UniProtKB/TrEMBL annotation:
Assembly information from the UniProt record: Homohexamer.
Family matches, as SUPFAM superfamilies: Nucleotidylyl transferase (SSF52374)
Binding site for substrate: S12, K44, L76, R90
Protein name, per record: Phosphopantetheine adenylyltransferase
Family according to the record: Belongs to the bacterial CoaD family.
Amino acid sequence: MSKDLLAVYAGSFDPITFGHLDLIQRASKLFGEVIIAVGRHPTKHPLFTYSERLELLRQTTSEVTNARIDSFEGLLIQYCQRVGARVIVRGLRAATDFEYELQIAHANADMLPGVDTVFLPTRTHYGFVSASLVREIASHGGDVSHYAPAAVCDALRAKFGAAKP
Protein backbone atom coordinates (compact mmCIF):
# COMPACT_ATOMS: atom_id res chain seq x y z
CA MET A 1 0.00 0.00 0.00
CA SER A 2 1.05 3.60 -0.09
CA LYS A 3 1.96 5.88 2.74
CA ASP A 4 0.90 8.92 0.68
CA LEU A 5 -2.73 7.79 0.29
CA LEU A 6 -5.62 9.08 2.38
CA ALA A 7 -7.98 6.29 3.43
CA VAL A 8 -11.41 6.39 5.05
CA TYR A 9 -12.70 3.78 7.46
CA ALA A 10 -16.37 4.50 8.02
CA GLY A 11 -19.02 3.09 10.30
CA SER A 12 -21.54 3.92 12.95
CA PHE A 13 -19.17 2.81 15.74
CA ASP A 14 -22.10 2.25 18.11
CA PRO A 15 -19.96 1.35 20.01
CA ILE A 16 -16.38 0.90 18.85
CA THR A 17 -15.13 -2.65 19.39
CA PHE A 18 -11.74 -4.32 19.46
CA GLY A 19 -12.47 -5.48 15.91
CA HIS A 20 -12.85 -1.85 14.78
CA LEU A 21 -9.66 -0.88 16.62
CA ASP A 22 -7.74 -3.70 15.00
CA LEU A 23 -8.79 -2.51 11.54
CA ILE A 24 -7.92 1.11 12.38
CA GLN A 25 -4.46 0.12 13.60
CA ARG A 26 -3.80 -2.09 10.58
CA ALA A 27 -5.04 0.54 8.12
CA SER A 28 -2.84 3.16 9.80
CA LYS A 29 0.21 1.04 8.93
CA LEU A 30 -0.83 0.80 5.28
CA PHE A 31 -1.85 4.40 4.55
CA GLY A 32 -0.43 7.82 5.26
CA GLU A 33 -3.58 9.02 6.99
CA VAL A 34 -6.80 7.29 7.98
CA ILE A 35 -10.01 9.17 8.59
CA ILE A 36 -12.31 7.36 10.97
CA ALA A 37 -15.63 8.63 9.66
CA VAL A 38 -18.75 8.29 11.77
CA GLY A 39 -21.82 7.96 9.59
CA ARG A 40 -24.82 10.01 10.63
CA HIS A 41 -28.04 8.44 9.39
CA PRO A 42 -31.29 10.23 10.23
CA THR A 43 -33.31 7.00 10.14
CA LYS A 44 -31.08 5.08 12.56
CA HIS A 45 -31.42 5.38 16.32
CA PRO A 46 -28.03 4.57 17.84
CA LEU A 47 -27.52 3.71 21.50
CA PHE A 48 -24.78 6.32 21.83
CA THR A 49 -25.26 9.89 20.68
CA TYR A 50 -23.08 11.26 17.95
CA SER A 51 -21.04 13.21 20.54
CA GLU A 52 -20.62 10.14 22.73
CA ARG A 53 -19.41 8.05 19.79
CA LEU A 54 -16.90 10.73 18.81
CA GLU A 55 -15.60 10.92 22.38
CA LEU A 56 -15.26 7.13 22.65
CA LEU A 57 -13.36 7.11 19.36
CA ARG A 58 -11.06 9.87 20.59
CA GLN A 59 -10.35 7.98 23.81
CA THR A 60 -9.72 4.64 22.14
CA THR A 61 -7.70 5.76 19.09
CA SER A 62 -5.48 8.43 20.65
CA GLU A 63 -2.33 6.32 20.09
CA VAL A 64 -2.95 6.08 16.34
CA THR A 65 -1.09 9.24 15.35
CA ASN A 66 -2.01 9.23 11.66
CA ALA A 67 -5.74 8.82 12.24
CA ARG A 68 -8.31 11.55 12.63
CA ILE A 69 -11.99 11.43 13.44
CA ASP A 70 -14.68 13.04 11.34
CA SER A 71 -18.32 12.50 10.43
CA PHE A 72 -20.44 12.48 7.31
CA GLU A 73 -24.02 12.32 6.15
CA GLY A 74 -25.15 10.89 2.86
CA LEU A 75 -23.09 8.67 0.61
CA LEU A 76 -19.64 7.62 1.76
CA ILE A 77 -18.29 7.94 -1.79
CA GLN A 78 -19.34 11.61 -1.88
CA TYR A 79 -17.60 12.16 1.45
CA CYS A 80 -14.43 10.55 0.04
CA GLN A 81 -14.56 12.92 -2.92
CA ARG A 82 -14.97 15.96 -0.61
CA VAL A 83 -11.96 15.04 1.56
CA GLY A 84 -9.77 13.77 -1.29
CA ALA A 85 -9.59 10.14 -0.10
CA ARG A 86 -8.45 7.54 -2.62
CA VAL A 87 -9.21 4.45 -0.52
CA ILE A 88 -12.15 3.10 1.47
CA VAL A 89 -11.18 0.48 4.06
CA ARG A 90 -13.77 -2.15 4.89
CA GLY A 91 -13.56 -5.05 7.31
CA LEU A 92 -14.85 -8.51 6.46
CA ARG A 93 -15.95 -10.95 9.15
CA ALA A 94 -17.60 -13.63 7.01
CA ALA A 95 -18.46 -14.54 3.43
CA THR A 96 -21.85 -12.88 3.85
CA ASP A 97 -20.09 -9.58 4.59
CA PHE A 98 -18.13 -9.95 1.36
CA GLU A 99 -21.20 -10.24 -0.87
CA TYR A 100 -22.75 -7.06 0.54
CA GLU A 101 -19.48 -5.11 0.67
CA LEU A 102 -18.52 -6.11 -2.87
CA GLN A 103 -21.85 -4.83 -4.19
CA ILE A 104 -21.26 -1.48 -2.43
CA ALA A 105 -17.64 -1.35 -3.67
CA HIS A 106 -18.81 -1.88 -7.25
CA ALA A 107 -21.41 0.88 -6.95
CA ASN A 108 -18.82 3.23 -5.43
CA ALA A 109 -16.35 2.46 -8.22
CA ASP A 110 -19.05 3.14 -10.78
CA MET A 111 -19.85 6.52 -9.21
CA LEU A 112 -16.24 7.55 -8.59
CA PRO A 113 -13.64 5.32 -10.30
CA GLY A 114 -10.71 7.07 -8.62
CA VAL A 115 -11.57 5.66 -5.19
CA ASP A 116 -10.70 2.03 -4.48
CA THR A 117 -12.07 -0.21 -1.75
CA VAL A 118 -9.63 -2.32 0.23
CA PHE A 119 -11.01 -5.25 2.19
CA LEU A 120 -9.23 -6.36 5.36
CA PRO A 121 -10.36 -9.61 6.93
CA THR A 122 -10.89 -9.43 10.66
CA ARG A 123 -8.53 -11.34 12.87
CA THR A 124 -9.93 -14.76 13.72
CA HIS A 125 -10.67 -13.88 17.35
CA TYR A 126 -12.74 -10.83 16.30
CA GLY A 127 -14.64 -12.57 13.50
CA PHE A 128 -17.87 -12.88 15.45
CA VAL A 129 -17.69 -9.52 17.28
CA SER A 130 -20.09 -6.81 16.17
CA ALA A 131 -21.28 -3.62 17.81
CA SER A 132 -24.81 -5.02 17.92
CA LEU A 133 -23.57 -8.14 19.74
CA VAL A 134 -21.68 -5.98 22.24
CA ARG A 135 -24.79 -3.85 22.85
CA GLU A 136 -26.97 -6.94 23.30
CA ILE A 137 -24.65 -8.60 25.80
CA ALA A 138 -24.18 -5.35 27.75
CA SER A 139 -27.93 -4.67 27.82
CA HIS A 140 -28.33 -7.86 29.85
CA GLY A 141 -25.49 -7.04 32.24
CA GLY A 142 -22.98 -9.30 30.50
CA ASP A 143 -19.24 -8.71 30.48
CA VAL A 144 -18.05 -7.26 27.17
CA SER A 145 -14.49 -6.53 28.25
CA HIS A 146 -13.17 -9.13 25.78
CA TYR A 147 -14.90 -7.33 22.91
CA ALA A 148 -14.58 -3.61 23.64
CA PRO A 149 -12.12 -1.19 25.29
CA ALA A 150 -12.53 -0.21 28.94
CA ALA A 151 -13.93 3.23 28.08
CA VAL A 152 -16.67 1.57 26.02
CA CYS A 153 -17.41 -0.94 28.79
CA ASP A 154 -17.78 1.92 31.27
CA ALA A 155 -20.04 3.84 28.88
CA LEU A 156 -22.20 0.75 28.31
CA ARG A 157 -22.56 0.18 32.05
CA ALA A 158 -23.59 3.82 32.43
CA LYS A 159 -26.17 3.45 29.63
CA PHE A 160 -27.66 0.28 31.01
CA GLY A 161 -27.31 1.12 34.71
CA ALA A 162 -25.25 -1.93 35.60
CA ALA A 163 -22.81 -1.88 38.48
CA LYS A 164 -19.13 -2.27 37.68
CA PRO A 165 -18.03 -5.86 38.37
